[in-house]
Specification:
CATH superfamily: Phosphoribosyl-AMP cyclohydrolase
Oligomer: single chain
Helix content: 10-25%
Strand content: 25-35%
Low-confidence stretches: none
Order of helices and strands: HEEEE
Number of domains: 1
CATH class: Alpha Beta
Number of helices: 1
Number of strands: 4
Structural class: alpha+beta
Strand order of the largest sheet: 1-2
Radius of gyration: 14 Å
CATH topology: Ubiquitin-like (UB roll)
Shape: globular
Distance between the termini: 22 Å
Largest sheet: 2 strands, antiparallel
């Protein structure tokens, strides 16, 4: 999945060992799995080359996608379309 994180979300992630994100729509901290139980246990954090993206390696306790799918990235998510480059 892809999600937004700010300094508060990253600090909460490091402090708890579970993924936290920032909801731009709700303008609040979001603890992944707080209501569903499908938390993401953090196994590692990596910054990209210019330190503006964080890759969070996790062990999921259940589906990552809000639809109940294991992943948000699957062919049927966009009607089977695939962008050819």
């Amino acid at each position: 999945m892809v999600a937004w994180a700010n300094a508060e979300a990253l600090a909460a992630t490091v402090a708890t060992g579970e993924a936290h994100f920032w909801s731009r729509r709700r303008r609040e901290l979001w603890h992944k799995g707080a209501t569903s139980g499908n938390v993401l246990r953090v196994r590692g954090l990596s910054l990209d080359c210019d330190a503006d993206t964080v890759l969070v390696r996790v062990e999921p306790a259940g589906p990552a996608c809000h639809t109940g799918a294991v992943s948000c990235f699957r062919p049927e998510a966009n009607g089977g379309a695939f962008l050819e480059l």
